[in-house]
Design goal:
heterodimer; A: mainly alpha; 10 helices; B: 237 residues; transmembrane helix (chain A); cell membrane (chain A)
Chain lengths: 245, 237
């Protein structure tokens, strides 16, 4: 592994995205628009529902978007033959994966910064904890999406399959993360499953931030999500094969 | 002994089929070696085995005395796949700068690679907007970065205009003269006479191995196409 090569990969991914204006705009603006839509839906509701589910969605949107973008981009790299060329060159698998994680992490920082800024600044999302930490959590969630996207792209041979991984991998996590039903009210088996899913911890971190100014729990949740990111990237590296049939 | 590549008892299985059967040959530095045969005969699989990206390889394949695919070889082999494996949404220069960084090649090598493949006037164009032939030249340029001592080129001249083909063969020749081993595959037999040495392939086996003149003499034919046919008939007997 080398820093030069990791940065080369990250720079190249960013250069590609920069040229694709529509993707760039959607990456930056879409989560914010969805948050605004949510705020509008509950504008006339007497209960503070936006404050209750807003934070969870701030965790979920960057996760979904980065999952999709990464799995499709990596798949494209596999099918165009550029991955084969890179792996025949002196490029470590870690350089490749970290380069991607770095590039998309940076995009996630912009995306989450805008979404959090608008939600807290304009839409009046109330949080007890620190706004900066909220952005950090959102970035880590986005990187989680990237790590899982990299991992599943190894199991997809077509773009159709890659997109199908979204309902397979992402939707169950959304259902079980505590957004619809608090996790401790789920049937025992489902609660146990939700304890094993990374998005649950991402949403927990967001919820802690909103309800309390004590950051201890947030850091614990963040550490768990970070662990999943490392595990995802590690497994992703294991599925990258220099020799293919 | 100036063998860059040495292959013995090479077999490759793809799916349930054995696609390369017991190949033995070597490739020397300073020569252009042509790998000729009809499409589907195993040229690409053989090249992938030399580069070290082919799975299910048995037998011995060494490059510079080390097993093919060893980490230390990765910066010394330039490999061009049949499909132009470059990024469509980057310019020619951006593509090459990226690959140069990965290889640790100097920035100046980007300019000279672009000159070699005659794309100076297209250097700042996005690859997507180039023609098929131009794209494959970008792919070739990427393989020239970092002055590799072994070049493995899978059908690099397909679909190119004759003038450019002539130029590229000139490039392959001068790379060989500078001491590199150059392996070029083609399914077009009329490119045979440009090579120092030929490996004629058919159905996963090597039909003939020698200089174009030797092969023609051995088969008693005037050109490689007829030599190929004669050798196929002899082998069938």
């Amino acid at each position: 592994m080398s820093l030069r090569r990791t940065l080369a990969v990250a720079g190249r991914v960013l250069a590609q995205i920069r040229r694709d204006h529509r993707t760039l705009v959607m990456l930056v603006v879409l989560p914010t628009l969805l948050m605004t839509l949510l705020w509008w839906m509950y504008e006339e509701s007497p209960a503070p529902i936006f404050d209750q589910i807003g934070p969870a969605l701030l965790a979920i949107f960057p996760f979904i978007v980065m999952f999709l973008v990464t799995s499709v981009t990596t798949l494209r790299e596999r099918s165009s033959g550029t991955l084969e060329r890179l792996l025949a060159m002196p490029l470590g698998k870690g350089d490749f994966l970290l380069g991607y994680a770095l590039a998309f992490g940076l995009l996630a920082a912009v995306q989450s910064g805008v979404a959090v800024g608008v939600s807290v600044g304009l839409l009046g999302l109330e949080i007890a904890g620190s706004v900066a930490l909220l952005v950090v959590v959102a970035i880590v969630d986005a990187v989680l999406g990237t790590a899982l996207g990299l991992l599943v792209s190894a199991f997809a041979t077509t773009e159709f399959q890659a997109v199908q991984f979204m309902p397979a991998i992402v939707v169950p996590q959304i259902l079980l993360c505590g957004l619809l039903v608090p996790r401790d009210s789920l049937p025992g088996v489902l609660e146990a499953i939700s304890d094993l899913l990374p998005l649950s911890y991402a949403v927990d971190a967001m919820t802690h931030l909103v309800t309390s100014s004590d950051t201890g729990d947030v850091w614990t949740d963040l550490a768990v999500v970070g662990g999943f990111v490392v595990a995802g990237l590690g497994l992703g590296a294991a599925t990258l094969r220099r020799r293919t049939p | 002994m100036n063998n860059v590549v040495e292959v013995s008892d090479l077999r490759v299985v793809r799916g349930k089929r054995e696609v390369l059967h017991d190949l033995d040959f070597s490739v020397r530095a300073g020569e252009v070696t042509g790998l000729l045969g009809p499409s589907g005969c195993g040229k690409t699989t053989l090249m992938r085995a030399l580069v070290g990206v082919q799975a299910k390889v048995t037998g011995t394949v060494t490059v510079h005395g080390e097993p093919a695919g060893s980490p230390s070889l990765r910066s010394r082999i330039g490999y061009v796949t049949q499909a132009s494996s470059v990024y469509d949404d980057l310019t020619v220069t951006e593509n090459l700068r990226f690959f140069a960084k990965v290889l640790g090649a100097p920035a100046s090598s980007v300019t000279s690679a672009i000159e070699t493949v005659d794309l100076v006037s297209h250097a700042d164009q996005v690859v997507r907007d180039l023609s098929g032939g131009q794209r494959s030249r970008v792919s070739l340029a990427a393989a020239l970065l970092g002055s590799p001592s072994l070049l493995v080129l899978d059908e690099p001249t397909v679909g190119l205009d004759p003038v450019l083909r002539e130029q590229l063969w000139g490039t392959f020749r001068s790379l060989a003269e500078e001491g590199a081993a150059v392996i070029v595959s083609s399914h077009v037999m009329d490119e045979a006479d440009r090579c120092d040495r030929l490996l004629l392939m058919r159905e996963g086996a090597i039909l003939a191995d020698g200089s174009p003149v030797e092969i023609k003499q051995k088969a008693g034919a005037d050109d490689i196409e007829h030599a190929f046919l004669t050798l196929v008939k002899e082998a069938a007997r």
